[in-house]
Structures are given as C-alpha cells and as structure tokens.
Design goal:
Layout: H1 7-23, H2 33-46, H3 52-58, H4 64-75, H5 86-99, H6 103-108
C-alpha cells in the first residue's frame, strides 16, 4: 500500500488491474498440439529469449512466461526424457554425497 492510500482505494486499484488482465484474453490450461507447433516454429525462426514477443508475433494467446515454461519443460529438442542411465545415476549419487541437496549446484557440475 502506498503512503496515504486507503484500503478501499487499494482494493479498487487491484480490481482495475485484474480487469485489464482479463481483457487480454490469455488462454490458460492445457496446451494443444497446434499451439505447440506454433511455438516450435516461432523459436526455430526467432530463437529463444524474448518470450513476451511470442504472443505479439506468433498469434498465440499465451503469456510469455507460459511460452517459456512450455518450451523449457516440454518442447526443447535437447530435452532428455526417460530413465537415467547407470552412469548418470552413479554420478547423481556421487554428487549428492558430496553436495547434499544442492540440486542446482549438482546440475552445474
């Protein structure tokens, strides 16, 4: 709350912000295969990075954060899925013994 701002005016301001967000009509929920294809095509042409530009230039009705997360967690071509190899599992156990639960540091090594 800003100095001198009443509780009522703060509620009104937050309400207006919420309405602005609703007027953008951003889609939520599961992604369709058509949306995935649009995002993959966009990233092939323009690269990763400016995720807020995806909505403007691709026609997707998703926010930049949603596009970034979909790409990073599901669509990246180098994303590995499936079981760990015995070598990967051995390395994880070794690093866990050395670093504990510092998973980000383990991933960096």
């Amino acid at each position: 709350m800003r100095k001198g701002q009443s509780d009522l005016s703060l509620v009104e301001e937050v309400g207006r912000r919420g309405n602005m967000r609703e007027s953008c009509h951003l889609k939520k929920g599961p992604w369709t295969s058509a949306e995935d294809a649009i995002l993959v095509d966009y990233v092939k042409k323009h690269g990763e990075g400016n995720w807020n530009a995806v909505q403007k230039h691709s026609g997707l009705s998703r926010c930049g954060k949603s596009c970034r997360l979909r790409w990073a967690n599901h669509l990246r071509p180098d994303l590995k899925k499936g079981m760990f190899t015995p070598e990967e599992e051995r390395r994880i156990v070794e690093l866990h013994a050395k670093l504990g639960n510092k998973w980000a540091r383990m991933a960096a090594e």
